[in-house]
Specification:
The structure is a homodimer. By secondary structure, chain A is mainly α. Helices cover 67% and strands 3% of the residues of chain A. The first copy, chain A, has a domain of 99 residues: Multidrug-efflux Transporter Regulator, Chain: A, Domain 2. Chain A is built from six helices and two strands; from the N terminus they run ααββαααα. The first copy, chain A, has a two-stranded antiparallel ribbon with strand order 1-2. The first copy, chain A, is flat. The interface between A and B is large, with 69 and 69 residues. Chain B binds a DNA duplex through helix 2.
Chain lengths: 150, 150
DNA sequence: CTACACCTTCCATCCGGCTGGAATGTCAAG
DNA sequence: CTTGACATTCCAGCCGGATGGAAGGTGTAG
């Protein structure tokens, strides 16, 4: 498939896909005779894996190492294994923190809800927040396959 | 207390504390006659809250809005409440995703561990990863109060 | 033919979140 | 008094992770 289709199917922009290739996160795909990139099904999996791993807080560089390990079935390096184990520990901590902060936020939310919502004095700020929220959701939540596709 | 002590007690650098003040995340503290910032105990709480909230994926701008809500007991804006509720939903999704990816990574880790660790061929990369790991831990995990304090 | 969607590369820019460093001030200890 | 640790402001730069846009090639449909 071409880059556009891959983008549509993963929710990752063509721009970003090329960028991932540049930084070594995606292997250079075959090219059609005209020079267009030609991806196989595996690229879809790989991109989804990247998105998920990214959502857990791994950097793109770290993800690249993991993918190397995954694809070669080879230990590129002892440190990759350590990285993974460390990250697992981090994840457990993070999950716990999330739960705790979730509760904290829940309290605040309740309070917010009990107060008069008509006193919005700063529409600019509000707008900013609304946008930020959208962005955050878009960038962090793993898209199954459907997406608002401009 | 002065900025240095606050930094030591929270694990947030003095530099970063001033930066937070600049962007409105921390209220400008009192000043000693000599101009030095003079913080109260609440600053410690506030910084810890910021770190936790940040660990859940909120941006600093979003955190600023929440803190405003928290401190004024006022609904700055309807959208802040929406932000919080949305974020709670996000958190639940995120926690689930983390668990799932955690398992995925655990599998990879096991695989990594079963393979020969002696074949490390790319020390530069390894170094990078090691550093990245340190950074990641430092920046994301909420410090209780102890920390490796350069 | 030409319009149009789609692809290519390349280079610049943006954003969030810091961080470094210069130039200067304050103050307690030796 | 000077030295040293700490503080101040201000401005520049960095990193990760993209994103924008120019300038151009391709290929099918009308």
């Amino acid at each position: 498939m071409r880059i556009g289709e891959l983008a549509a199917r993963t929710g990752v922009s063509a721009k970003t896909i090329r960028y991932y290739e540049d930084i070594g996160l995606l292997p250079p795909p075959e090219r059609e005779p005209n020079g267009y990139r030609d991806y196989g099904e595996d690229a879809v999996d790989r991109l989804r894996f990247i998105r998920d791993a990214q959502a857990t807080g791994l950097t793109l560089t770290e993800i690249a190492s993991i993918l190397e390990l995954r694809e070669e079935g080879q230990p590129t390096c002892e440190h990759v294994a350590e990285l993974l184990e460390q990250h697992l520990k981090d994840l457990d901590v993070q999950i716990a923190t999330l739960q705790a902060t979730r509760d904290h936020l829940a309290t605040l939310t309740e309070r917010a809800r009990r107060l008069d919502p008509a006193t919005c004095t700063d529409p600019v700020r509000c707008q900013t927040i609304a946008e930020a929220t959208d962005l955050r959701v878009a960038r962090r939540v793993a898209q199954p396959q459907a997406h608002r596709h401009s």
